[in-house]
Amino acid sequence: MLRAIPHFIAGARSPGCGERFAEVHDPAHGSPQARVPLATGAEVARAVEAAAAAQPSWAAESPQRRARVLAEFKRLVESRLQELAELLSSEHGKVLADSRGDIERGLDVIEFACGIPHLLKGEYTQGAGRGIDVYSLRQPLGVVAGITPFNFPAMIPMWMFGPAIACGNAFILKPSEQDPSVPVRLAELLAEAGAPAGILSVVHGDREAVDAIIAHPLIAAVSFVGSSQVAQHVYAGATALGKRVQAMGGAKNHGIVLPDADLDQAARDIAGAAFGSAGERCMALPVAVAVGGDTAEALRARLVSAIGRLRVGVPTDREADYGPLVSAAHRERVLRFIELAVREGAELVIDGRGLELPGAAGGYFLGPTLLDRVTPAMRSYQEEIFGPVLQIVRAASFEEALALPSAHPYGNGAAIFTRSGGAAREFATRVNVGMVGINVPIPVPVAYHSFGGWKRSAFGDVNQHGMDGVRFFTRIKTVTARWPAARPGPGPGPGDDRPSYAMPAV
Predict the structure, then answer these.
(1) Residues of the chain with pLDDT under 50
(2) C-beta neighbour count of 454 within 10 angstroms
(3) Is the pTM of this model over 0.70?
(4) 282 assigned to active site
């Protein structure tokens, strides 16, 4: 009998009242292991009702009190890190070290959000005019929601609900139905840490739940991470209803390798960034751009060597570098992209399609694949593959290499490998993407900076976590105050009762 994964609504597990369910698979063996209910609009509305009831008193708590709840939540998650990592790996397919990293990077944002008493401080000007003071307040929006992808079922939810709840909001989380157990456990642990019932609810679902979140009039803001197609749908639908939206989409990140780079280090970094987590990262590095023919040949040889040392295994294999893809459907999608690239004229240097693991014949495994002589005209270059596939593009010059990520429809991130400070500085200044790494293959910012791409990688003007997260989940109220001057006798002084019709001067 399959394990039942519940919703978490109003502080309690809820089995779901709808008639639709999805199966959660074990990616390492290809078998179903659980069933998850797909929420109806009524269930989303019930979660919103509980959130709206709980939010005002939560917002009225002092920021210190909210920070203490998050600090206790962080402690509880850390005390169960191994248990949560094993649960995450069993549904996603990540190796355990990667699952622990998923959780720990999310906890970095929780730790940042524990500084909310300082982060919410406004501005104050005494004497902005004669007897007038001006100050600002940063106040919560009310009920907000997050829609998160399968590839980071712990980190991205914590990126969203940590700052949102710290700021005094109530949060509705709609995680991926492909690996939904860890988000439920996180909600339970937040309740155990002292968050009131309704402050964090988890509703599972597909497009019906997403559209219910977009349409609900009490949800003031929606945060989304997923494909660009769905990001655009969420952004267009929610902004049309006056909601605040941050919607992060797909990516095709480039690693530019200049002739003066440390090629051994660059090859190791690129292989790790391309194939870690089976390439199922929006900040993976699936395109290596070699500048110059000699650089391309030398880099290719080193990549072949690095890839040859990679080990693919089940999530519990401590020696494995990465595990299976998340689903059979996604594996088939990646296979079609490999076939497309070959038809388009790319050179298949390493073919990972024949990988077989003893004892895991039904798993969704795919070996590392390397393609060379890929060109910008190829559809396999233009689109996000999101699997263990690395493409080499050859560029004749720095300018040609710089133009590739700048012209690409996606603009999440790019990295440059070089010993030249001048080249690195020029690249960072001119490249048309949102995040840049200099000899850093995956330039995901630390928690107190903000994460976000450009072009079709992001819809909306405010990024994830850091101060942008605080800004997104709050709104500014500016107060201009004047108090009557103290007078020795009763009543107004001479001339105080005369009205003024001019624009006041400061």
Answers:
(1) none
(2) 16
(3) yes
(4) yes
